Amino acid sequence: MNIKFLSLFFLIIAAVQVQAQKGSANFFIKPRTYDQIFTMEMDYGLAGTAATNAMFYSYGFGGFIDEEMKEKAAKRLSHLNLLGQNTQALFRYQQQGRTILGMENAGWQMELAWKNYMEFEFTEDVFNLVFYGNKDYAGKTADLSNSELRTLNYYQIKGGMNFFSRLEKHYFAFNLALNLGNKFQEGRMNNSHFFTSLTGDSLSLDGNTNYRFIQSQADNPFDIFGFGAGLDLYYKYSRENKYNIEASIEGLGFIRWNKQQAHLDYSNPIIWEGVEVENILNLPNPLVNTSAGDSISNFIDANASSGNYLSYTPADLKLSAAYQLIKDAVELGLDLRYRFFSVFKPEYTLKVKLDYLENLSFIPNMSYGGYTRFNMGLGMVYRPTTSSTLEFHTRYLSGIFNQQSSSGIGGFISFTHQI
Amino acid sequence: LKAFVYILIILLLFTFTQSCRKFPSDLSWDTDLKVPILHSKLDVGDIFADSLIQYNPDQSVSLIIRQHITGIDNNSLVDIYDTLSVDVVKTPVNLPYPFGPGAPLISQTNVYHMELGDLEIKEARARNAIIKFMVINRVSQPLYFTYEVLSSDLSGSTFSASESVPAGSPATPMYYSKQISLSHYMIDFTGLNHDKSNVVRTHTQLHLHQDADTVYFTPPDSVEVISIFEELEMDYAKGYFGQIYEQTIDTSSFQTFDNFNAGSFDLEHAKAWLEIENGLGVDVQMRINQLQTANTGTGVQKDLNHDIVGKSLNIMRATETGDTSNPVLPQTYIYEFSQSNVTELIELMPDQLRYNVEYQMNPLGNISGGNDFVYRDYTISGDLMMEIPLNIRMDSLTIEEISSFSFDDEEKIKTAALSIHTKNSFPFDVAVQFYLLDSQQQIVDSLITENNISRAGIIGAQGFVQQASEDIIMVPLDQSKLNLLRNSNEILVKARMQSQHVGNLQLYEHYNIDIKVVLEGGYEY
Description:
The complex is a heterodimer of chains A (419) and B (525). Chain A is mainly beta and 419 residues long. Chain A has 6 helices and 22 strands. Chain A has helices at 3-16, 53-60, 67-75, 124-132, 293-303, 398-401, and strands spanning 36-48, 64-65, 80-100, 103-123, 141-143, 147-164, 170-196, 203-214, 226-239, 243-257, 261-266, 270-272, 275-277, 305-306, 309-313, 315-326, 330-340, 345-357, 360-370, 374-385, 388-394, 409-418. Residues 1-29 of chain A have low confidence and may be disordered. The radius of gyration of chain B is 38 Å and the shape is elongated. With 525 residues, chain B is mainly β. The chains are: A mainly beta (419), B mainly beta (525).
C-alpha cells in the first residue's frame, strides 16, 4: 500500500469533505472473464433541507399542500435552505483488457448521458412568503438575500479509455465529453429585501437580482442552445479481499450558450402599488389579475440583454473507501461527495455491504448532506447470471415511513451485462 | 432479465418527463395575501372628461368648451350636373358609297356652355369626377369612338377615352353606356380664348370598328353620342359662385357634462365667444338667428341673449397663399359675448347645442371679378368657445362609468376584503360606490355598505387646500359578494362630489384624489 497515496487521500477527504453517491459500477468491472460491458443507469433524487416528503408527493401528484405539511416544513427551516432535484441517465459500452497501441490491459468506452438539475437555495422568509403569503409581513421586511435558483438540462456524448495495472491493483479511466445544452436558468438575489407596507398599499423589492435564462418559447427537449466540453476522471486502488479506495470526478466541464441566452442584472428598487389605472372610473379587466407571471415575464423581457455566456456544469467529486470486515460476507464503506458549481452541500454516506447469498447482497446506508440532512437507505446488488448485475440503491428509505419529517425521494438503478 | 430492462426503460422515460415538469405543476396551497391591486388618480381632467382643461400660470384650472357650428358644404357651392356634349351621325339620304372597316364617320369638336345659373366657373380640379357616355347605335355594325376633353389637363395630358360599341339596328338600337373617371384633372372652363366661363371643349371621333363589315348608310342608320357629368366633387374651383343663400339649422351634442347626472355648477367669471373662420375665397354675410343649449334629460333649454343674435356679421373672404401644402389663409373673426346670460346656458348642464345660422355668399355681387375660390378642405364654420374658471361648488355632482370586468374566474380567492386607501386634496368630499350590474345593466348589489366617503382636503384661510385627507374605505366581501363579483360582467362606478364649505373655491392643477385598492384575503396558489 502506498502510504503517501493514503495520506493524500485522507487529506483530501478532510479538506473537501466529499463522498461518493452511488455504487462503484461506473467504470470498473474485473475483466478476467469478460471484456465487453453494456451498462444502463438511471439516478433520480429530490430532496430538501426544509421541504418534506409529504410536500414532494403533493408535488409529484399535483396535490394540495395543507397547513400541517407547511408547519412541519417550517419547523425544519434555517436561515438558508436547499431544495434540489437531480436526474441522470446513461447508456455505456465499454471494452477492457485489450492491447491498444502497444498498451496492455487497456480498454475504451463510449457513453450517452442525460443530466438534469433543478436547485433552489432560499431564505426562511422566501419560504414563508411563498407558502404563507405576505399578510403577516405587513410592516415588516423579508430577507431574500442569497436566494438562488439553478436549472440545467444537458446531454453528453462521451468517449475515453481505461487501464489496469499489471496486477490489477490500480485502475484508471478517463472520458472526454461533448456537452449539448438544452435548458439553463441561473438566478441569484443579492442583498435583497421585500417590504410590505403596514396597510398593504405598496410592496417593494430592493437589492440586486441577477438572472440568466434561455429565451425559448418552445419547451422542446431536443433543442440545443449551447455546446461545451467535459471531462471525467476515475481511479481505483484495490487489495483483493481487504479494501479498496476510489476517487473520481465526473461532469467537470462547461457549456457556452448561444445568443438565446438572456441576462437580467437589476439593481433598482421595484415598487408595486397595483395596476396603474388611468381613470378609476374605468376599471381594468380583469379586476384582479391573479397571475403575476405575465407581468414578471414582461418585466424581464424589457430589462434583459441577450448574448453568449459560458456556464460550468455541476461536477461531482467522489471519494470512497471500502473495507472487508468478513470475507465474502460483510464490507464496510464510506462515501463522500462534493458537487462543484451547485448548491449541493458535502454529502457523507456510511454503508455496510452484506452478502446474503452468493449472488445477492444488501447494502443498508446512512447519509447526511447533499440537498438534505440525515437519511437512511438501502441498496441491493443482484447477479442473476455470472454476466449480469442489477443494482438498486436509495438513500431515502426513511422518507417513505416518515413523510412529514424527512426529506428525500429517489434512487439509483442500473443494469450491467457483460459478454 | 428482459422484463427488468423494460422496466428500466419505462422508469427512465417516467423520470425524464417528471424532471421536465415545470414547478409548481398542479400543486396548490393556501396563502394569506395583502397586496395592492389598483392605483389610480382622479384629477380635474377626469372629472371633466372629454373637455379641454386649461392650466393657467397661477396653477388654477379653467374648463375650455368648444362646440362646433357646422358651416357651408363646399360641394354645394359648385354643383355641376349637366350635359357635356351631344354628337349625332345621321344621313338624310341613302349614301351611294360603302363604308369599310375603320372608316371614319365623324370627327367633331364641341364647345359646350353649361347652364349653371349664377355660377360662373373658370377652372376646377376634380377630386372625384365621373363622366357618363351613352351611345345609341342604330348601325348594323360595331363602332369605335374616341372621346377627348380638350380643356382638361393632368400632367400635360388631356383626358381621352376610347370605346368599342356593339352593332345595333334601326329597329333595335344598341344602347351602350360607360362611366369613365376624370378624377384629378384640372379643367379649364374659359373656352379656347380664355375669355368665357362654364365652357367645356370636347372632341369626338367615330369610326366603324376594325372588325366591322362594309356597310351602306341609309336615313334610318344613325349614331348618337351623349356625355354628361355623372358625379363631380371638386378639390378646387375658381370663378364667381353667385349669391348663394344657405341656412343651417342643426344640433351638436355636448359631451362635457355627460358624467354629471345630478347636482349643479355654480360658475363665476365664465368667458364666451364665437370664433368664425372663413376659408372660402368668398365674402359671406352671416347671421345667427338662434343659439340655444338644452338638457334633454331635464327638458330645460336656454337661448343665448346677446346682441350678436340676429345681427348681420360681414365676413371677408380668405386669400390664396400660393403654397400647395397650405393654400389658404383664412379670415378669423372673434365675437365676444361674456356679458350675456351664457352662465345660465352652462348651468343647466346641457347635452345639446342648437343653432340656426344663415349665410349669404357674395352679398355685394361679383366684386372679385370672377376670382372667388374654394378648396375642398377649407370652408366657413364657427366654434362656440367657453372658458370657465373652475371656481366651483360641488352640490352632489356625480360622475359615473360602467366598466366590463371579470373577477377571479378560477375561484382562487377564498376570502377577501378590499380596502380603498384615498388621499383627497380636492376641496370637496368624494363618495365612491361600486354597483354590480346584471346582463340588463340593472343594479344587483353595491359593494360598499359602510362609510364610503373620502373627506375633502383641509382648506386654509385663503381657500387653498393645505393638506390632503387620508381615509380607508373598507369593502368586506363575504362569500355571497364574492360569488356576485365572479358572476357579474359589468360594474358601475359612481363618484359623488359634495362641497362642505360655503361659497365657491377655485380648483388647482395639483388637486386630485389618489386611490389605492388593497386586496387582503386567502388565495389558493
